[in-house]
Amino acid sequence: MSEHDTMKSDLDNPNDLDAPGDLDAPGSLDTPGSLDTPGSLDTPGGLDIPGGLDILGYLNAPLEFFQTGGAFMYPILIIFSLGLAISIERYIKLTYERAINRNMWNKLQPVLADADFYAAREIVANDDRSTIAKLIGMALERQGVVRRREDIEIAMEESMMEIIPQLEKRTPYIGLFSNICTLLGLLGTIMGLIAAFTAVANANPAEKADLLSASISVAMNTTAFGLMAGIPLLIFHAFLTSRTGEIVDGLEMASVKTLNVISSATRRPSDDSFTDITITNLAAEEVVKSMSKVTDEPSAADISDEGSADVDEAEKSD
């Protein structure tokens, strides 16, 4: 076989370079699994993930809304922050106050029901945090000193006058801040509209409509933000006012019950015995009055005494 025939047989051999397993075989650069396979940069999961970059747009929307609102957005934000801080502080305070008052009353109620005022004084003396302890402690201090119900009631009312302002402290500011936020939003809108109409007056007639609509849209941001700040503060104010009223009602209930127990304990032992003593005193007074109506005629003993006195005087004169 010549050299030419040998080269021809090699090229026509099925196992040559073009056979499966060569560069064009599966698994080569042109086959699936190469750079053009799923998972590459052009496939889902790469840099072009739907919604991947839109998150930044959602995060920037509130910031753009605040920035385009104008200068009045800053005082609204500051006032809203103050109102929110006061609301949180008042909520924590009132919730704590209601819890400790309930625990204290659960301790005092059975002791007062047994009229054990000494034990009640010890319980109150060991607690200086709850307002109900201060209120009932004021009544227990008067329990052994005065007898009239009015005196103890006046002392408890004095204590209530000191407690209620502490419960209502700073709560009215929340409603005030709510109104201020709303009014500042309206004022910012008015000022924005004035600036918008002033700019439109000097603008190109072809651009007036677009400029006016854009300016009005920006001016409305302050009103929207003022309402978004004012409405929650108004809700917080109503909730805290209701919570304060519940605590005050509980204190009044406890004061009335304590006052009734003290009044029952300091009352005279028995109304029947008091009535008997009164009747006895009246009968004695009637006896004294009847004795005073006896005739003024002298008795035999008085006459004998007068006669002996006359005889003595006569002897002395002789």
Unreliable segments (pLDDT under 50, ≥5 consecutive)?
A: 6-11, 14-49, 268-280
Q: Briefly note the structural class of the backbone.
A: mainly alpha
Number of DSSP helical runs: 10
**Strand segment tally:** 0
Description:
By secondary structure, the chain is mainly alpha-helical. It has a domain at 73-266. 74% of the residues lie in helices and 0% in strands. It is elongated. Residues 6-11, 14-49 and 268-280 have low confidence and may be disordered.
List the helices and strands and how they pair.
Blueprint: H1 3-11, H2 54-67, H3 73-113, H4 117-125, H5 131-143, H6 149-167, H7 171-201, H8 208-266, H9 271-292, H10 300-317
What keywords describe this structure?
elongated; mainly alpha; single chain; 318 residues
What's the short version?
It is built from 10 helices and no strands.
